[in-house]
Specification:
Distance between the termini: 7 Å
Structural class: alpha/beta
Radius of gyration: 20 Å
Number of helices: 9
Bound molecules: ribose-5-phosphate
């Protein structure tokens, strides 16, 4: 097996490679002054199963294009197969038609991934569990929930009775139920959140379920941080004294860093599916790694 990394999250690729006891294979990525890229595989790949690690946020268009070019370069050099490790799969928000006249972005991405010859995708905590079914190639859909469960047990140190898991929207109910089972039936509550599709404005109307002293919010991603801000405010009003946040993908757009640091959350746990530049880090942030889990999945392939 040969493992390559695009430029979007090299530290994660290095950790995965280390876990597999493999070096990262060499690529030459030349950027022309107008942003166009020229990609060349420098390692021999004839007959090899190859892996390319490339989460696609931020700058999804750039990162996808780079992934397509890496896949093409490797296949032209004789690789037997390509597994794309895309821990965060951009454009999954538009996985179907929500309003008349819209593009189904994920369908466009799916067609290109398949057309460039990628044979398998490994991804983490997709927004919807039905996304893998939309692909014609195999999609291994992993979840960071077991990593979160371990950390939650460490934080609460046995006082399960004081805790409630919280989904900040109805879309996260399935996720929260799985985590509740992992944590021995920890109770859960759900916030009813509404987003205006035209303006993006969020409102939260009610919480379904009983709120306890410690509330643990779990979400698939944090983008602007507004969902977390809204959820922590509502939980505070409803009696939560200590609030922790767990989210798989730190998309961290706009002013997320300050929104999260100023929120009622004690700590914000995310994973390294997306690389967080130093300037987006903040004191309440803690990063958990998914590298071992991805390496484990790749070992199953080989
Ligand atoms: C939405 O349904 C997702 O699960 C997240 O809650 C959402 O994408 C977070 O976005 P933001 O941080 O911008 O509120």
């Amino acid at each position: 097996m040969k493992i390559f990394s695009g430029t979007s999250n090299k530290p994660l690729a290095q950790k995965i490679a280390k876990n597999l006891g493999l070096p990262l294979s060499d690529l030459e990525i030349f950027v022309f002054p107008d942003g166009e890229k020229r990609v060349r595989a420098l390692d021999k790949v004839v007959g090899e199963d190859c892996v390319v690690v490339q989460p696609t946020s931020p700058e999804p268009d750039k990162n996808y294009m780079e992934l397509f070019l890496i896949a093409d370069a490797i296949l032209r050099n004789g690789a037997k197969s390509i597994t794309a490790v895309i821990p965060y799969l951009s454009y999954q928000r538009q996985d179907r038609l929500f309003r008349e006249g819209e593009a189904v972005s994920l369908d466009v991405i799916r067609k290109i991934l398949e057309a460039v010859g990628i044979s398998k995708i490994i991804t983490i905590d997709l927004h919807s569990v039905r996304i893998p079914e939309l692909f014609k190639i195999e999609v291994a859909h992993l979840s960071a929930l077991s990593i979160f469960a371990e950390k939650i047990l460490e934080i609460i140190r046995g006082s399960v009775a004081d805790c409630v898991l919280v989904s900040p929207d109805m879309g996260g109910v399935r996720r929260i139920k799985i985590l509740s089972e992992m944590l021995g039936g920890m109770p859960y509550a759900v916030i009813v959140k509404n987003r205006n599709l035209a303006t993006g404005k969020l409102t939260a109307s009610e919480i379904q379920g009983e709120i306890k002293k410690r509330a643990i919010i779990v979400d698939d991603m944090i983008s602007t941080g507004e969902t977390i801000k809204l959820a922590t405010e509502l939980l505070r009003k409803n009696g939560a004294k200590e609030i922790y946040v767990f989210a798989t993908h730190p998309v961290f757009s706009k002013d997320a860093k300050n929104v999260l640091q100023k929120s009622y959350a004690e700590r914000v746990f995310v994973t390294d599916t997306i690389e967080i530049p130093k300037e987006k880090e903040f004191p309440k942030l803690e990063i958990l790694s998914v590298s071992e889990m991805i390496a484990g999945q790749l070992k199953k392939n080989s």
